[in-house]
Amino acid sequence: MDPNGNMLRWEAIRVGSLGGLEELFEAYGREHPFIVTEPGEVARGKKNGLDYLFYLYELCRDLLIQVQNIAREKGEKCPTKVTNEVFRYAKSVGANHINKPKMRHYVHCYALHCLDQATSDNLRRAFKERRENVGAWRQACYMPLVAIAAARHGWDIDALFNTHSHLSIWYVPTKLRQLCHAERSNAASTSGDNLPPF
């Protein structure tokens, strides 16, 4: 069952079973817009909640494994990140709801969910309570990630992504990289330290 209460047989689909994937994705049809939901809350009406959004990132991971297996069988180079090849494969098996613009748009939100679920959940609850839209929530996910990158890797957001198994397959958003660089520069100028370049 997916986070929106839809019965799925994803767990029964073996990696490499193309027919199973096509059957799975037929049920989705047209994708609905996202709304801010609390953890565990099922979205109502023609909307999708944030648990479902994060679930799509897990599906992308499985699709990447499928693409890697196909590449190995053909003796070709295996992608290590979710690339256009993975999105094309998703479309070919009927997963039209998994597309590059959407998955890249929210990847930093998924990163926050992976790295600090408590902060992510609190942010979701606060934005739901204030009836904020998903765009405002998305923007609010940036700065907690910058703080995590500062604390764990000296603002090196690439290192932060690369050391996490669920994030290493995703490209770091340009805006997130720019925010980390700006915060690092601000910290250096405030403290007077000459921090080494990235």
A few lines on this structure:
The chain folds into two domains: 1-105, Protein LEAFY, CATH 1.10.4180.10; 122-198, Protein LEAFY, CATH 1.10.4180. The protein has ten helices and no strands.
Tell me, rounded to a whole number, the average pLDDT: 86
Quaternary arrangement of the chains shown? single chain
- Classify the helix fraction into a percent range: 55-70%
Compute the separation of the termini in Å.
43 Å
* Percent of residues in β-strands: under 5%
CATH homology superfamily of the largest domain: Protein LEAFY
- Count of spatially separate domains: 2
| Pattern of helices and strands | HHHHHHHHHH
Low-confidence stretches: 6-29
CATH topology of the largest domain: Protein LEAFY
| CATH top level label of the largest domain | Mainly Alpha
Described by strand count, sense and barrel closure, the largest sheet is: none
How many beta-strand runs?
Answer: 0
Can you name the CATH architecture of the largest domain?
Answer: Orthogonal Bundle
Pfam family, one: C_LFY_FLO
Domain Floricaula/leafy DNA-binding C-terminal: 29-188
Organism: Striga hermonthica (Purple witchweed)
Function: Probable transcription factor.
Provide the fold topology.
Blueprint (H helix, E strand, L loop, with lengths): L17 H9 L23 H25 L9 H9 L7 H6 L1 H9 L1 H13 L4 H7 L1 H12 L3 H6 L11 H18 L7
Helix pairs in contact: 2-3, 5-6, 5-8, 8-10
GO molecular function: DNA binding
GO biological process, one term: regulation of DNA-templated transcription
Protein name: Floricaula/leafy-like transcription factor
